[in-house]
Amino acid sequence: MKHHPDLFDARTLYNDTRLLFKLKLLLGTVCAYGGEVPLSQGELAKRMGTSTYRIRILLQKLDLEGIIHYNEIGILFFNRYTFVRDQEEMTPTNLYAKNFVFFTCDEFLAEDRNVQRFVLHYVGKELVYIPRNFRWGYVSDLYGPTGLLNIRTPKEAKQVLLKASKYLNIKIHTENFQVLNVHQKWIAMGEVFSEGAELWVQKQLKKHRFCCEFLSRKAVWQMAKVMEDYYVKFGYEYATDIFDNALYRIQHNKMRSQTFLNMIYKDDSDYIVNDEKNELDEISAYFRSIMESAELNYAVQLSVELDHVQQQKQMAETILFTNEEISDINQKVIEKTEKQQGLIWDKLRLINLCWLNRFRSHPEWFVERYYQIKTLPAPILEIKLEIEKFISKRKSKAV
Q1: What is the pLDDT of residues 216-266, one digit of tens each?
Q2: Residue-by-residue DSSP string for 91-117
């Protein structure tokens, strides 16, 4: 996950304290799939060197501003992120702002607030760190009631530009200015890279009682690669559910568990990676196979849930007209179960779509499991037909 350029818009930064701005940068650095923040308020406070109470107050402010949100079970999500895959080319739709180390250095934070906002706006929002990229601006756009900065006169605007030139290569003219790049001194301080994917995987592993202290960091990244692929193709909720199911299956299948644990509980230096053998790729391949098996298990669970919901709905409909009081209660039950049924159907349709995409390259996997797949409910329909066609063609060739 990368920082969204809107996070650095000068118009939104004026009332930010140092601590609040640092918290925004931290949230952008640790957020993972879907913007989920895998750290607790206590862990955020520890990283920030402040109290949990202050973090809670700041998060409440960010929640009101729409920069974060909580889902129905209280998980924190950061809304100002851009998802960019590794080695993905930069395009107008996936532009992101780098989190440079100098943003939080004492020298920069001691600058006038408007100087900070101007630099952050042009480095983060306007993205002048991109090679050969530059931006023109009008001095008049910086001041006044609708200006970018909280200043009133052209003289103040020129002073801001002069002070900002300590960090940016700026050409200043009478009415215009040109921002060319960030001075190498500040670029050389480095940037803070996202650790969200690693933290997210570790959080899920801890939830399923894996001993992360002895776990290879390289192995964690191999699992994160599989999760990233699922997230890109099928979204946050589906990918998370399947990932959790996969970890559950590992912990409750002794044979599979031992095989996988032998792969991931190693020192980073112990892995063999050469032209003939790549043990890291074996981890991701093995975990992907577990994820695929978990999809079938997940579909069966959803089928059981669907049966239960349908039974509740039928019972409510049966006694709907018994008396007025019961009718009101049953009507609410019917409405609730219809909503639940719709959600489950949507999840099953997504599984069906996922399987159709994978069937083209791995039909044998589905043929071997057809006896289970054919028992699944109506939303799993097209894949059943595809498997039946494939089996029928194979039989006709055999004859």
Answers
A1: 999 999 999 999 999 988 889 989 999 999 999 898 887 777 888 899 999
A2: -TTS--B--BGGGGSHHHHTS-HHHHH
